[in-house]
Amino acid sequence: MKNLTDSFVSLGHWPFAGSFGFNTDILATNPINLSVVIGVLIFFGKGVLSDLLDNRKQRILNTIRNSEELQGGAIEQLEKARARLRKVEMEAEQFRVNGYSEIEREKLNLINSTYKTLEQLENYKNETIQFEQQRSINQVRQRVFQQALQGALGTLNSCLNNELHLRTISANIGMLGTMKEITD
């Protein structure tokens, strides 16, 4: 490592007169070198730098134009989307209102149908009750009639003797015979 530092230190002790070498005096050489390099760069690099800057400017302008076109398209799509949203919201509101009115209508129809069904059931119930009452009345009448007939037969059997019984039978046979003649 010492050899490496010695070689740099020895560069600083080169003689100044008549020889070609490095001048290590920074204050004397840097402004001159910089002015030469900047002058060469300006002279030769002006066209290249100008072309690079023009190309960059055109790309930036194209990008801005494309962005503006995309922004215009996006704004147009946004307006279309907003219009569709408003339309859908109006349709949704209309469906909601129609749905509520349809629900109310169905509710009223259901109530009316239920009342009609209840009335029919009430009528069927009343008809069934009347039918059962009539049937019960008829059964009671038949029993009363049967009991009255049995009582009358019992009374007749106890009151009639054989002779009276035979005369009643003969009279009934005679009445049946005359009825038969009349119908013939």
From TrEMBL:
Lineage, broadest ranks: Eukaryota, Viridiplantae, Streptophyta, Embryophyta, Tracheophyta
Please list every transmembrane segment annotated in the UniProt record, as residue ranges: 32-49
Question: Any further remarks?
Answer: In plastids the F-type ATPase is also known as CF(1)CF(0).
Major place of residence: membrane
Query: Family, per the entry?
Result: Belongs to the ATPase B chain family.
- The molecule here is called ATP synthase subunit b, chloroplastic
- Which positions carry the signal peptide feature in this UniProt record? none
Q: Which HAMAP family match?
A: ATP_synth_b_bprime (MF_01398)
Q: How does it assemble?
A: F-type ATPases have 2 components, F(1) - the catalytic core - and F(0) - the membrane proton channel. F(1) has five subunits: alpha(3), beta(3), gamma(1), delta(1), epsilon(1). F(0) has four main subunits: a(1), b(1), b'(1) and c(10-14). The alpha and beta chains form an alternating ring which encloses part of the gamma chain. F(1) is attached to F(0) by a central stalk formed by the gamma and epsilon chains, while a peripheral stalk is formed by the delta, b and b' chains.
Name where it's found: Membrane; Plastid, Chloroplast thylakoid membrane
Please describe what this protein does. Answer: F(1)F(0) ATP synthase produces ATP from ADP in the presence of a proton or sodium gradient. F-type ATPases consist of two structural domains, F(1) containing the extramembraneous catalytic core and F(0) containing the membrane proton channel, linked together by a central stalk and a peripheral stalk. During catalysis, ATP synthesis in the catalytic domain of F(1) is coupled via a rotary mechanism of the central stalk subunits to proton translocation.
Q: Which UniProt keywords apply?
A: ATP synthesis, CF(0), Chloroplast, Hydrogen ion transport, Ion transport, Membrane, Plastid, Thylakoid, Transmembrane, Transmembrane helix, Transport
Q: A Gene Ontology MF term for this entry?
A: proton-transporting ATP synthase activity, rotational mechanism
Topology in the lipid bilayer is annotated as:
Single-pass membrane protein
Q: Name one GO cellular component term.
A: proton-transporting ATP synthase complex
